[in-house]
């Protein structure tokens, strides 16, 4: 039979939306199929992909919150009378960030509608070369056929499931940006550290006790020759972010106080160490 669409895009993130809208402007009949699988902690979001919902946009807004806090501290040296102590309320910031993200979700839906791109809020799987089976959250099935199909599903953070308690008690960046209450004393873990460093930067900036656990060198795979990688971590340390170097977590346990006790191996010293935190965040595999 005749294909229903000229182009079907599976994935409603930055790449998928751009592809769909450009194709539609050339007069093609286009559809986008997008579905957010909730994180293990139950976090979910709307159309727009990682950048809009759990990446660039909320990250930059939270960095802006941290920068405003730094400006308030500096302001008193320039004659501004700022009442002390300055206090940050996570829930107010989070609500503003999440409201802005939701406005972008709606904007993307409107843009698709204006360009006559059909939007399916469904999870897709291939039936054959030109057929995708879409499934809604409620289990309703829709079959979509297209002459061309683009896969633009991006990636999600992973849990280090070999670490006991990681999945049960940890969160990822998918959850951090949608927390309604402050994460409190937080430790962040990853292999390459870029996501960890970005998140640790604004957490420290808004006054939270923040520790980054790093197994090897900072920003592995990035430019080490110019010393920029070490300069980043040195700068962060000067502003209060703590670093546990040469350390690998082995387990996470929940205490009676609801604190999370993290155990790790310090390979440099050959010792096993522990500390308790309010939040443990994994930044692995994105």
From TrEMBL:
InterPro entries given in the database record: FAD/NAD-bd_sf, FAD/NAD-binding_dom, GSHR/TRXR-like, Pyr_OxRdtase_I_AS
Domain of life: Eukaryota
Name of the molecule in the record: TRXR2 reductase
Protein's organism: Semnornis frantzii
Ranges where the FAD/NAD(P)-binding domain occurs: 5-285
Family in the record: Belongs to the class-I pyridine nucleotide-disulfide oxidoreductase family.
Biological process (GO), any one: glutathione metabolic process
Record-linked Pfam families: Pyr_redox_2 (PF07992)
């Amino acid at each position: 039979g005749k294909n229903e669409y000229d182009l079907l895009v599976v994935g409603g993130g930055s790449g998928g939306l751009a592809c769909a809208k450009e194709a539609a402007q050339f007069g093609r009949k286009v559809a986008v199929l997008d579905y957010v699988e909730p994180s293990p902690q139950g976090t979910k979001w709307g159309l727009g992909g990682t950048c809009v919902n759990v990446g660039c946009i909320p990250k930059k807004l939270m960095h802006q919150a941290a920068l405003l806090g730094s400006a308030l501290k500096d302001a008193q040296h320039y004659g501004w009378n700022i009442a002390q102590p300055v206090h940050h309320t996570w829930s107010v910031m989070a609500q503003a960030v999440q409201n802005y993200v939701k406005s972008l979700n709606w904007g993307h839906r409107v843009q698709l509608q204006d360009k006559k791109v059909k939007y399916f809020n469904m999870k897709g799987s291939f039936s054959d070369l030109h057929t995708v089976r879409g499934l809604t959250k409620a289990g309703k099935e829709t079959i979509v056929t297209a002459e061309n199909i683009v896969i633009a599903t991006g990636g999600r953070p992973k849990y280090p499931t070999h670490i006991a308690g990681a999945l049960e008690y940890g969160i990822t960046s998918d959850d951090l940006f949608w927390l309604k209450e402050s994460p409190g004393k937080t430790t962040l873990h990853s292999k390459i550290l870029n996501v960890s460093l970005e998140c640790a930067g604004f957490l420290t900036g808004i006054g939270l006790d923040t520790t980054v656990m790093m197994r090897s060198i900072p920003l592995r795979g990035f430019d080490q020759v110019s010393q920029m990688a070490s300069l980043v971590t040195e700068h962060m340390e000067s502003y209060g972010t703590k670093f546990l170097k040469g350390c690998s977590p082995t387990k996470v346990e929940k205490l009676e106080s609801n604190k999370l006790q993290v155990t790790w191996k310090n390979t440099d010293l050959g010792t096993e160490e522990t500390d308790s935190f309010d939040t443990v965040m994994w930044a692995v595999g994105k």
